[in-house]
Amino acid sequence: MNARPDNVGEAKAGVNAGPAAAVHANVDAHAMAAAVASPASGGDRIGDRFVQSGLLTPDQAVRVVQLQDAEGLRFGEAAVKLGFTTDKQVQAVLSKQFHYPVAAERSGISADLAIAHAPFSAEAEAIRQIRAELSIRLAGSGPISLAVVSPNEGEGKSYLAASLAIAFAQAGMRTLLINADMRDVGRDKLFTRTGEVGLSTILAGRSAPSAGLPVDSFPLLNVLDSGPPPPNPIEMLHDGALTRLLAALPGFDVVIVDTPSAGKSSDAQVIAQQIGFCLLLGRKDHTHLVDLVATQDKMRTAGAQIVGTIYNEFKSGRTRGGWFRRRRG
């Protein structure tokens, strides 16, 4: 999709922010190790961290340094090339070095979320660029509340909402991710720990207001799932239900709300109206311009302020050693 509707801001032009985000290039997973790559640099040395973590023996660390010097590699690159460690292990060490949270093994967070599992990848950097643009555009508005909206399913909306929530939490902001799609509860979960309390049970008065569950490895992130599917989701959302819920859950710096497809129901309109700001999403070679324009008009009719439009690009295929699945958003 090369055109965009008039007056729709573009949060990051040309950003490939989907699960397969053009990861055809050779991604340098060790970029942040540049300043601390040499164990001879003194201070908090990355080679010492590998040894202390039990990932390398002292003799292996010496061999890594030798290869590093001989081929001009970073320490992590040399360790992976020698077969002593994996990219995942290198990223875990770097994350501790820079106090940057990442998903632990068996964390219950989908492997599709590169921002959680591969935070130094090109795909994760694209998410951080979107986060930075949103922070600039919403500066001075108080706590950030944002609904992520797209016309149809399969455009990566849930992926983007979850990725942004993780990115804001990584930046030190207390973040709440709400899955407000109470219609498509059978889709794959990006977070497997959901609990018994969900948005539907809270809005129905069967549960007290709750911020859901904390996310392992991300102490500043909570996820409130959609809950059991109700027969009347649109009626449950009316009359400021979300507004009242958020008022009962103070203390969050950022609230990200995943919504049902705008072309499937009026839920997204009602949600965006109560949240205030919305981010539109279209998928390259998938979303029709007429659908994006119609969604834009719906959001404006609801009184929501559109802060930008993301053009998402992803394919099913093999990358990072696994099979990518099209996310239903």
Walk me through this protein's architecture.
With 329 residues, the chain is of the alpha/beta class. It has two domains: 31-97, no CATH class; 121-324, P-loop containing nucleotide triphosphate hydrolases (Rossmann fold), CATH 3.40.50.300. The protein is 34% helix and 14% strand. The protein contains twelve helices and nine strands. The protein has helices at 46-52, 58-71, 75-81, 87-97, 114-117, 122-137, 157-170, 199-203, 233-237, 241-247, 267-275, 289-301; strands at 144-149, 175-179, 213-215, 218-224, 254-258, 277-283, 305-312, 317-319, 322-324. The strands form two sheets. It has a seven-stranded mixed sheet with strand order 3-4-2-5-1-6-7, with helices on both faces. A two-stranded antiparallel ribbon has the order 8-9. Helix 2 (58-71) crosses helix 3 (75-81) and helix 6 (122-137) packs across helix 7. The protein is elongated. It starts with 45 loop residues before the first helix and ends in a 5-residue tail after the last strand.
